[in-house]
Amino acid sequence: xxxxxxxxxxxxxxxxxxxxxxxxxxxxxxxxxxxxxxxxxxxxxxxxxxxxxxxxxxxxxxxxxxxxxxxxxxxxxxxxxxxxxxxxxxxxxxxxxxxxxxxxxxxxxxxxxxxxxxxxxxxxxxxxxxxxxxxxxxxxxxxxxxxxxxxxxxxxxxxxxxxxxxxxxxxxxxxxxxxxxxxxxxxxxxxxxxxxxxxxxx
Length: 202
Prior knowledge:
- This protein folds into 2 domains: about 1-45, Homeodomain-like (Arc Repressor Mutant, subunit A, Orthogonal Bundle); about 55-200, Tetracycline Repressor, domain 2.
- It contains 10 helices and no strands.
- It has helices at about 5-20, 25-35, 40, 50-65, 75-80, 80-100, 100-110, 115-145, 155-175, 180-200.
- It is elongated.
- InterPro entries: Homeodomain-like_sf, HTH-type_Tx_Regulator, HTH_TetR.
């Protein structure tokens, strides 16, 4: 598929920002990588900040699609066991994080989180907050269906997801360095199995 000039600018900026950080990249570097004049970039983006905002907004919209709609949960959970639901969710999430563009945006968020308020908001609200809130609803429904033990669903969401966040961060660092991820992937699977053992309603 042929990219438009605006899409090429987006991709070049993402590639460079994810390697050097926003402050370490100039407009000249972006346009050189795209193969256009600097003046041409301004036909598509007001400035470098507008490119970063477009990248982060794209991530926010794209990431929201990794979770199923809350109003579909009753139907999904009524026919799905907790083990299948969690392992499928983890597989889908990992697949998203393995996508080259997803990895670059995630690295960019990590680099920019203390400089750029929008990056901070996405990490805290979308990545952490909404994922945990979603899982709280999932566990609440599983408890009501008597599929798992009646623990506090908020605590369950935190206890399940925060180790996943940490392990995925380690996974992405190893992938960036071209190192073996076998051990961290094994830890992720062990975490899910251990969690299921704890919450399983015998």
